[in-house]
Amino acid sequence: MNILFFTESGIGISALATDQIYNLKIQNDQTFGVISSLEQENGLIDRVREAQIPILNLQKLEYHATPRQHIKQLREYVVANDIDIIHVQTNWELALCYAVKLSLLGRRRVKLVYTVHGFRHNSRHKRWLALLLLNPILCLMADRVICSCKYTRDVFPLARYKTSLLPLGIDDGYFSDEWEYARDAHLSLIFPAQFREGKRQDMIVRAFAKYVSLRGDRDSVVILPGEGPLRDQVKQLASSLGIGDRVIMPGHCSKAEVKELYRRVNIAVVSSNRETFGQSIVEPYVMGKVVLSTPVGIAPELLDGHEGGFIFRTEDELCEVLCHLADHPEEIGRIGKGNFENRMMFSWQQITSQYLDILRDLL
Question: How many CB atoms lie within 10 A of CB 196?
């Protein structure tokens, strides 16, 4: 199969798409990449080139600039390289490639694959408007829609007949051969995220304060890496609840620093009100940590029946879970080890193999 894969995610080339195309090239030699002007992390374009992936450079794609020129470039590239499948990451890319597909009707059959990365918006009205528009667009333009979990799939009922479930992979750096168990007698919690509306770090702080008050725990801690407009507000909340010294807020952390923090803790908490997938759910999962999450993204599938962790909806429910784990510390080890043993379901090697099966069925 000749696959043209977009690595641009709307605000520059993403590390996630770079990981995917890198592994795709290993299993499917006839893989071609589309890049743009920006990269979300330094070195991503170089990594694509080092993998010897042929590249089509659509300058300023992320700015939606020169669409006619980009359609012309795409059309010529598709014809010249006998492209069978184009995989896009954004609505704009889907529109461009659908125009290319229409222009080639009767000359070449090209299939369009679309991965749903984001549909949510913290404005309820804007979110429902986006969903109302996107459902028929996917039915019309995409030949296959890929959703990373059932939570995402279920908000696109019109396109369900052409939707495949496939989780996102996790960077190889989060995988190890041996499980590391943080053997602290106390609870150590982490939630790395931007401090913005929808992430709700304040829920974690309030629940933790209730837990400390109920149990008199003097050793457990919460680590909240990240920056954002609500950071100071959450910090003030922790101080007002008397746990300011127990809520650690290290600011922005690199991927390596976040991984090291995960290694030191025994519990990851995700308090978001919406996630299309939830990297912050899966990263600690593959490292063998207990995961506590609201019922968003892939959490209901991973944590069903308390096998991978616990679902909570309110700060009182989160407090109850913390009390339970404090009373049953052996569960932290049992659940964490089980998560570690199931980690390979999120390896790019396994996911890429499943992805290629989906594309073969499409052709």
Answer: 15
Beta sheet of 247-248, edge-to-edge order: 247-248, 221-223, 188-190, 267-270, 290-293, 309-311
pLDDT given for residue 123 in this prediction: 57
Q: What is the pLDDT of residue 342?
A: 93
Residue 130 confidence class, pLDDT cut points 50, 70, 90: low
Token pair 């209901």 is found at: 300
Q: Pull the structure tokens for residue 253.
A: 């952390």
Distance CA 360, CA 358 (A): 6
What average pLDDT does range 275-279 have in this prediction?
Answer: 88
Contact present, 24 and 352 (Cβ < 8 Å): yes
For residues 351 and 166, is the Cβ–Cβ distance under 8 A? yes
**Cut 0.85: pTM above it:** yes
Cβ contact 8:16 at 8 Å: no
Token digits of residue 302: 């991973």
Rounded CA-CA distance 179/286 in Å is 10
Q: What CA–CA distance (Å, rounded) separates 96 from 346? A: 31
Q: Say if residues 85 and 111 touch (Cβ distance below 8 Å).
A: yes
CA–chain centroid gap for 310, Å, is 19
Q: Where are the beta strands (DSSP E) in the chain?
A: 3-6, 31-35, 55-57, 85-88, 111-115, 144-147, 163-165, 188-190, 221-223, 247-248, 267-270, 290-293, 309-311
Instruction: Give the range among 172-181, 269-278, 310-319 with minimum mean pLDDT.
Output: 172-181
Instruction: Calculate ∠ Cα 360-67-54, nearest 5°.
Output: 45
CA 114 – CA 96 distance, rounded (Å): 12
CA 1/CA 111 separation, integer angstroms: 11
Asked whether 90 and 8 are in contact (CB, 8 A), the reply is: yes
Contact partners, residue 194, CB within 8 Å, separation at least 6: 226, 227, 228
